[in-house]
Structure formats: structure tokens, C-alpha cells
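Incident review: delayed structure delivery

Summary: a single-chain prediction request sat in the queue longer than the usual turnaround. Root cause was a stuck worker, restarted by the on-call engineer. No data loss occurred. The affected request and its eventual output are reproduced below so the record is complete for anyone auditing the incident later.

Affected input:
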Amino acid sequence: QVQLVESGGGLVQPGGSLRLSCAASGLTFRVYDMGWYRQTPGKQRELVAGISSGGSTNYADSVKGRFTISRDNAKNMVYLQMNSLKPEDTAVYFCNAGLLHLSVWGQGTQVTVSS
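Output delivered after worker restart:
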């Protein structure tokens, strides 16, 4: 059974940092492209950061220079280091694994940036 489980969300003050983790199981992790998405009520889910199976990364303009995506193929893990957090980063963050027509989602983790 393919499963993605996110962790690391929470409440943080503006300017603070959080590190999200996503544990993958039931798939050949190293061949999947991985991504972090976020969604707020009433809005579409948007790509925050992606990392290909080969390690290439891409970021939404709104998070460039503040967020870093990484993966550990030996541990079947993908991470999102979030620094200099802003209130507008508040959202539910989802982990995604993609391969050709396959797309798997985690259940999401809430990130709230507020003083």
C-alpha cells in the first residue's frame, strides 16, 4: 500500500522556521518526483517546491530563497525546510509523489504563521 505521511507542521511566529518531513512507503521512492504543495480555504492547491528523481529542484516564486526541498532516498524521506516564514505561508501542506500518470498524496499538515 502506497502511503505518504507528513509531519512537522505547527504554529510559528513570523520570521521563524519549520521543517516538514514526508515519509514514503509502498513505492520505489527513488524513481518518483516529489513535491510539496499547499492549500488555503477557498483556493486551489499550489506547488511550493519540487524535487525530481534526479535531484533537480524548483520553487514557487513566493518561497524562493526561503524554502529548501531535499530528499533522502536511503530513508524514503522528503523534507521542506522553511525559513523566514510569513503569515501568508499559513496553509495545509501536502506531500506528493509523482511518476508518469501516477500521483499519490499525503493527508497534509497544518502550518500556521502568526504572532
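Verification: The longest strand covers residues 91-99.
Action items: add queue-age alerting; document worker restart procedure.
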